[in-house]
Amino acid sequence: MSAAKEFSSSENNSVQNILIIGATGYIGGALCRKLSQTQDFAVFALVRPSSNIEAIKPFCQKIIRSQGAQFSRNDVEEIIRQHNIKKIVNLAWNMPPESTQEAQFEKDRIALEAALEAAEAVSPDIHVIATSGNFSLITADGGHITETPPPKGHTKHKCVEWVELIVNVNLLKDGLVEEYISKGGNAAIVYPGSVYGVSPTIGSFWDFAIQQFITGKVYQGYQPFPPDFMTGWIHVDDLADCYIAAARKGLKGGHFLATGENLSISQMSALFAKAAGVDFQAPIFQNQDNVVFDDSYTRQLLQLEWKYKVADEVNNWVERIKELKTYFL
Predict the structure, then answer these.
(1) Is the Cβ–Cβ distance between 228 and 264 less than 8 Å?
(2) What's the domain range around 164?
(3) Higher pLDDT, 274 or 166
(4) Model pTM greater than 0.90?
(5) Taking a C-beta distance cutoff of 8 angstroms, is the pair 263, 233 a contact?
């Protein structure tokens, strides 16, 4: 642990203690690092007994391992009470995905419910920020996608069929948060775009996904993605800034979309292949459904400007994947 973190946040009334659940993941690692650079948050991390914590040690005031293999309400409630936690960010999810929506939801809901129930039990002032996914916002008509969740029971667009399990599970998790908010709970949802870039911890989902698409081969059990699937992309450090701004804002019932650029899988893969020096002829992309992710409201509300562009950062991304030894092109 770095010397800079050897202090009690109670000595500084302006510092708020924030608990990160899922801190050793790709986004969690970047968020811990960025939070440690602020003057207003002290980072506490709840991790599983088997988690490798070396990468996040320099950024955390305290790292607590859960009592069991899964996070529990008791774990979170005890940390809240012992360490005067004011904010909770839940980034935990089960990877790799289970074979069915029901099985995935049963695992993914554990950490989320632990955060919500523990916060509710301790104080209505504790702000919980949950994580969803931009795929969950695509409506039946595709088109202009903003922070506004689609209406309950909406028909999903055919373009998300290939990732329907993840979409459906996110919708179910969102439902838990929305119900909590409707009953007076203090929570918000961040919808990250597809996340790329350099993180101090493990590689992202897209590290192998893009390489898989370029090779056209099944990798780790997943089929290559549809070439014309349009998604919003966000650098992991920009996304971390979004979580931090949302924590500062503390808006009950807030919905925040972080999607810096709109690119199809085909377009992103062409940029990646060029950076990797790999011959790859990307399929011609046509955004037939006019899908555009627009996070202008989030940026205005949270006073954010995205700092990173895919074209400028893809070389660093490729080099990081090589360092992690998850490069297979």
Answers:
(1) yes
(2) 10-202+233-261+291-308
(3) 274
(4) yes
(5) yes
